Structure of Amino acid permease-domain-containing protein:
Amino acid sequence: MPPLYSSNLPPGGRDSLELASLASSSPGVDTSETDSRPSISSSRRASLERDDPLDSANPAVRTRPDRSYSVTSNFDFAANLFPLSSTTGAGYAPIGAPTSARDVSGGLGGGSLEKHKTLTYLNGLSLIVGLIIGSGIFSSPSQVNSNVGSPGAALIVWVVAGILAWTGGASYAELGGAIPLNGGAQVYLSKIFGECSGFLFTWTAVLVLKPGSAAIIAIIMGEYLIRAFIGAEAETIDPWFNKTVALVGLSLVTFLNCVSTRLGTRLNDMLMFLKFVALIAVTIIGVVVAITGYSSSGTTANADWKEHGWFEGTTTDTSAWAVALYAGLWAYDGWDNTNYVVGEFRNPSRDLPRVIHTAMPLVIISYVLANIAYFFVLPLDAINSTNTVAVNFGAKVFGSVGSLILALIVSASCFGALNSSTFTSSRLVYVAGKEGYIPSVFGRLGNGTGSPDSLSTVRTRSWFKKKMSKLFGDEDTGLFFTPIPALILNAALTAAYILVGEFSTLLTFYGVAGYTFYFITVLGLIVLRVREPTLERPYKTWITTPIIFCCVSLFLLSRAVFSQPLQTLIVIAFVVAGVPVYFWRVKGRGSPDRSRMKRALSEDEGRPWWKFWGRRR
């Protein structure tokens, strides 16, 4: 180890990368001079180009004792290096903040989502549960049941799929603790495999994965809401009615998330409890029906579960089991959502693992109990032949009133999933704007001023605005200090998919592209373990956890390649098409102005006391 890294900074000291990032993002820095495209330049990249950590003249050259360096690691000196932890306690700056965005909403010096930490353990739990428990368990568990042939085998698949999804969530929890920044896989891939991999994930997720999956959720929500009021005739109604309801729901959740982070998370919390109450009620009703034999028609309820063995008819076809497992994993998808907002957690190192290890077992147990209740009430053939299991369940037990109530519950569940998806997707778009992957306007907060409500403006606001801010606003920032441009972009893309409404290809695309990036990201955890063994990890999962998840991901991807080779090629072509966009958008950018950064790091005279990071020690 070179002697350069053997000494320590005094208490509260910072390394040169942190100093450069903090100084470049402060509002007081002159940004009038730049020789790069303003929407793309990166403060982290600038810090590497201007402030060489090996330069003995650099006053901040010494490093913290808990920071790991290795001569062979490309994390130390490559362009994708950034501080893994912050000593400010005020939040985390993005990896690369665009010049134009830094003045309005970037970094720690101005308004940023990472600076204003508002999310709690309960908020994180509701985000994951809210998105995982959408419509699948209420509408079409038949994709699992029909492929394996028996109720007992189906329950095994539900448990195995949940555990496998849990291994992915645990792996992401370790990455989120080691790199506590908003953006999820985008940030992890950029650090571990280079900026191009992070850009390709953003390219795919922002344009297809996130808005496409949200569109599916929105249309299912519309279908069930219309079914609740129209009844069985809803199947013959014009699809544009469903799409209209979906667009209204999308607009509503987008507006609510624009108002404040608090409003969006509270809605998630409320709907999460509704979902658990609904699943518990379904379970209790199923048990009661099994014991009493009650049904709404007065006839004897389903007796298949007593007359036939629970494993009778189980298939031995491995491909059928693979399809069932794939469907089960799809039903558990959403376990990575908290990682998109980990930078906004008040205590990410503590809460992120707790969220994962609470949400996943709760969802697994809920799914298994709900399926058992379905088997108690409905014949297996009826379950396998419908995509409205919950509605049929309600009709069987309580008649038309039961089907109405269950249809409303499924619609509300989808609304909650749509809200969770909108909340987390907007953070991905926001980080992409901060990084310069997309125009910097999408990396701004609020109306573009980037400043939350201050004490000087509170007096001038009307009584109504004060009351609304107190009721619905965030504690430190008030109303509309959210990534509004990112929310609008995500809503526009989702609306486009709703209007097109062709989802069969989209599902294949989601499966192939989604699990490809899941695989690469979790593989990156193993790579990071080897390259940075001394990196501080507040949570560290067993090494077998990411290995198991990677093996399962490869299995699912290989199945997709052999069963649907043409659609797989389409996915690959779309991802590869992002490479020239990367070189145009990111690689082609110039270097930010050197003199501006130099002044930001060296000038002490006339600097306010609170800009302590720019002072020489």
